Amino acid sequence: MNQMNQSLTSGAELARVLLHPDSIALVGASDDASKTAGRPLTYLRQAGFAGNVYPINPNRLMVQGERAYPELSALPQVPEHVFVLTPTESVLDTVRECARLGVKVVTILASGFSELGDEGAAREAALRELSRNTGIRILGPSSLGIVNPTTGLRLTANAAFAEPELRSGRVFVASHSGSMIGALVSRGMARGVGFAGLVSVGNECDLSIGEICQSTLDDPTIEGYLLFLESLRHGDALRRFALEAARRGKAVIAYKLGRSDAAAEMAATHTGAIAGEDDIADAFMKDMGIARVGVLEALLESFPLARRMPLAAQGPRPRRVGVVTTTGGGAAMAVDQLGIRDVIVEPASSQTLKRLSDAGIVVAPGRVLDLTLAGTKYEIMKKTLDIMLEAPEFDLVLAVVGSSARFQPHLAVRPIIDSANASKPLAAMLVPDAPDALAQLTEAGVPCFRSPESCADSIAAVLARRYPGQQPAAREFSLGAHALSEAEAYQVLEALGVPHAPVVLAKLSASAPVLPFDYPVVVKLCSAHIPHKTEVGGVVLGVADHHGLEQALGTLGRNLAERAPGVVCDEALIQPMRKGLVEVLVGYRVDAEAGPIIMLAAGGIWAEVARDRSIRLAPVNVEEAYEMIDEVKLLKTVSGLRGKQRGDLDALAQAVSSLSQLAMGDYASILEAEVNPLMVMPEGQGVLAVDALVLRR
User: Fold this and answer.
1) Which of 88, 115, 202, 557 could make a disulfide contact with 508, Cβ separation 3.0–4.6 Å?
2) Quick check: pTM over 0.85?
3) Same domain for 554 and 594
4) Residue 410's pLDDT band (boundaries 50, 70, 90)?
């Protein structure tokens, strides 16, 4: 690495060169300000950028009225940041020249790299190798640039930044999509929301969203982050950023594409197929303290709420929302949207209702405190909010305001603003289109929403965050893996303390052994080369006696010869037939981006049909395992509901936590492990694994 680029190993220096460069070169700058390659120079001059800007154009002496230079080496200084605006074919040579001169950061506008097949992937790989060998940092390719409203840095080709003025704020935006940074700016202007910076990362051949955001964490003007993600990439860097952001109390909100089913078709276990790429990304974000929204409007609206409800390392997570309204219909929409997102709308307690009554405020008991038209009086709404914000049954209070918000915000909106500094978070949803009231609420720092969908989505996303827990051991992801035999898999379970049914091994070519447990039994082929035994007729159920065992061993031998010729196997595994109250699947997997995950799901034949599951990053403690149990609908049937027999959920929580410890250092070679089914026995009788599969690197 050359000396000029060495300093960019420092996060603070990287952030400076990205957001506060002293000098910029525009390679391929166009004289036509309406063209894509002409926009950056125009925007920088319009915004009053104070640093040196050098247009590079070998075909012109002047560009947009300014002196142009034929090449980078002709400049009077080495620019800190170069924006390459030339076609794809010339990019690699330009970046080589930048590296030779000692340029610190290059942003690449051109597309035509890994998204265009092998030839483009080779170009992108060459860029990555160049960065690795020389130390030059690369933003892109397919990056529309980077913007810092506070300094006039509009180093972008995005047409949305023709805006004459950009509002500064305390939120930093990083996006895979270049067009989205422009969309967020225009939407933010309409809401009075400003930004501390915006960056389009493109293909992330070098600089990733995680590394860029982490480099800005020391900036006191940045209080939170908005991420627009097309997929989960560079998971390690995103993890490091999210951990540090959580530690510093800086909120992170993300909108990620890909909620449609994208199961891992090539996964060797059910765990990979059931979890799906997006479900794993969802668990990753929640467990890293990132609020993932599903409504685009909520990406802008969630930050004030997340700032008012910081992540807590200890204590119960807030879950309960109290709703007060001046319009029953508007509140019903909000409650409905909260309900389908599993957010608890908490009724007021009898003590809270008495305090309201003593204050002269009479409301009917119910899920919502409906003040009706009386709530449009300042005194009524203010007293109600004061009482609700002191009530212990609410973690968050949501005020839903009707028509008065549009023309008479001093009636029901003003008391919300005057309650903004309460110790408990307060949010508002305005049913009519009331831009003035929204602007007043935004200026006061009150989380406020224009629709029930974005309101509920924001609240649900913020409440779903979890403070990052114990982190897994560092490991490299590997696609190469081999399965252990079922008997070997049980040895791994024994080491973890996960109970399994007793096992006897028998030779297919020998006489049936005398068993130390009672019939009936199940007899299964036992080979590392046959991970899915049923596919080759490798399982015989309900063997009733010693004679039946002899027959079962013969049947397995014949099935093996017919359906898996060439597979060497001369061993069978025998277990007693057991029946639990329910069957679950507990699966562990190392994901390429998210790292180790643990999944609890409906098991047996329902595993891939029901897709009833809960996913967390591994490892999890027993308390977190209980949360997973609560999220699996099947397990409601053994929770003691309506007098039904209760399963041993304590033992299940311990088993889930135990299997998740594969994420720690002693088990770095294990890529996947699955118990399916794990039988949940009646309370006090534990759990029992009756099939297991383990894949080792």
Assistant:
1) 557
2) yes
3) no
4) confident
